[in-house]
Amino acid sequence: MLSLKDRQINAIKQMLNMNQPQTKALAAEPVWKLLIYDRVGQDIISPLVSIRELRELGVTLHIQLHSDRDSIPDVPAIYFCAPTEENLGRIAQDFQNGLYDVYHLNFISPISRQRLEDLAAAALQAGCVANIHKVFDQYVNFITLEDDMFVLKHQNSDSLSYYAINRANTQDFEMEGIMDSIVDSLFSVFVTLGNVPIIRCPKNTAAEMVARKLEKKLRENLWDARNNLFHMDATQTGTFSFQRPLLILMDRNVDMATPLHHTWTYQALAHDVLELSLNRVIVEDDNEKAASTGAKSKMKACDLDSRDKFWSTHKGSPFPTVAEAIQEELEQYRSSEDEIKKLKSTMGVDGESDVAFSMVNDNTAKLTSAVNSLPQLMEKKRLIDMHTKIATAILNFIKARRLDSYFEFEEKIMSKQALDRALSDLMKDPEFGTPEDKMRLFIIYYICTNMPEAEYQKMEQVLKECGCDLAPIPYLQRWKSIMKSSVTNPNQYEGSGTKTVSMFSKLVTQGSSFVMEGVKNLVVKRHNLPVTKITEQLMECRAGGEVDDYLYLDPKLLKGGDIVPKNRAPFQDAIVFMVGGGNYIEYQNLVDFIKTKQTANSNRRIIYGASTLTNAKQFLKQLALLGQEIGGA
């Protein structure tokens, strides 16, 4: 079954093939073309299709819409952009300047009737109507980062952030705009999946606003005979066999501790400390030359995607496991390299001696296969080097900020275990992380416990002495009082705690590229975060607990009914969408959860989506802005 990512890639490839289905003959001999995209289009394409793949699809040049472009006749130009005033103005300018002979216009989300008419008028005026071959609405207005994960925005993502949705002075029309933007993208997701979901969401939240609007949009499209996007022809069955998926819309307020949590898995750490963004991290390229000459070390961009087997296997692993795995890969690589060297020397082929090479026949086959495996070996070496760089950068942060201790301590708080040190003692320790780390730990403690006023006053003083920015506190106090009065169960973190296993056996051996002394080898016990618990209950159609308050919306019913049908079979597939920003910690928790549910005869799947991806630093900043609004009010 095709994943959401596969389906979006297919849609992009079909668009690059002049909106014709891909055939074998075309793949062998592509039509040469230009790709002109805006920033949004670039964000959608870059995690999905590499530059090499663009070349294979016949794209000779890919350029920004708003850059200075020369006229290139005789080659079709494929435009891929959002239908904004600014973009359409630039396209009209291209018509006027007669830049290309053939235009294929593809809009990331549907262009309005009015704007289409304006564009037609511009084409008439420029006298290039005959040059415009196709105008398409693509319905791909979302960014797929993993087979089972998507976000709505990267450029200008602040417009959909937790702060934008929860700010005190957001006007009604601004809120409508935010909700419409989210709905537009979610609609694209379901058009791409080819399926109409059943929607569940908590009442009286931003998630309910999204749910109601999305239900209306899906229903209107289903009953629109001329324009129905869900009437699949026989060849294009929906992703989810005959069973409909469940869309669970959640509001970020359901769990405010997880986005601030110090994490311990590879991908989430890369997002937290290295600002992983659109599957790419920037790390220092620590070449010795720069170190010896005292020159500034260069920064290197590393792409992390599913083509990288090591990343696919280990992105959800605890950091010590990753370090061990890199070491093992390195040893394997060295032994393969030694084997080739040995073969060469036994055959007397030390570089140049071709005569000796032709004389020795029996080893030729061995050497040929070894030489044939060289490209894979080189690629393996490149990936090992890249992961060594990334893991070393993460390790430096772990050591400098004691992130292992933070992770361990927060897991204890979230799982209501007794703490072995008083929080105020930890905070006073100048070696213990940055003021920002201390603030994250304090907020998690504040959210997960009922702190007496006296203790709070004392902690506030300690935090001030540590140089912490207390701006988020007024907002969190208000949030906590609202949450207390609502039904939500404050004791939602069962947490798991951690256990420390013996020091990294393989890594302490000499010659390891990672110096792990002083870092705890923490093993996380399996547990479900609040988002995962709610997902499990809704997928199993179990009543009770906080999901009793969740609405049930079915866009296929002519009249919307909010009543959950009795005796419904459990759902096989769910899309969990977080309004107000998601994170890799929740994504990984859902991935781990659904793995435990796989059986021989049921392949259950979850896709995680979020309006934006927010790491702890960004989330803390948003809370500070919200706190300042209250403080200044």
Number of strands: 16
Strand content: 5-15%
What would you call the structural class?
alpha/beta
Helix content: 40-55%
Largest sheet features: 7 strands, mixed
CA-based shape: globular
Strand order of the largest sheet: 6-7-16-15-9-8-14
Q: What radius of gyration results from the CA coordinates?
A: 27 Å
**Uncertain residue ranges:** 233-241, 487-491, 501-511
What is the arithmetic mean of pLDDT?
86
Provide a descriptive summary of the structure in words.
The protein has 633 residues and is α/β, with parallel strands linked by helices. The chain has 25 helices and 16 strands. The strands form four sheets. A seven-stranded mixed sheet has the order 6-7-16-15-9-8-14, sandwiched between helices. Strands 2-1-3-4-5 form a five-stranded parallel sheet. Helix 9 links the parallel strand 8 and strand 9. Helix 5 runs parallel beside helix 6, helix 13 runs antiparallel to helix 15 and helix 21 crosses helix 25. The protein is globular. The protein starts with a helix and ends with a helix.
How are the SSEs placed, and which strands pair?
Layout: H1 4-16, H2 24-28, E1 33-37, H3 39-45, H4 51-56, E2 59-64, E3 76-81, H5 85-97, E4 102-107, H6 113-126, E5 132-137, E6 143-146, E7 149-151, H7 162-166, H8 172-193, E8 198-202, H9 206-222, E9 246-251, H10 266-273, E10 280-285, H11 288-293, E11 298-303, H12 309-314, H13 319-346, H14 354-359, H15 364-372, H16 374-401, H17 403-414, H18 423-428, H19 435-448, H20 453-465, H21 473-485, E12 498-500, H22 505-508, E13 522-524, H23 530-539, E14 550-553, E15 573-579, H24 584-596, E16 605-610, H25 616-632
Parallel strand pairs: 1-2, 1-3, 3-4, 4-5, 7-16, 8-9, 9-15, 15-16
Antiparallel strand pairs: 6-7, 8-14, 10-11, 12-13
Helix pairs in contact: 5-6, 8-9, 10-16, 13-15, 13-16, 17-19, 21-25
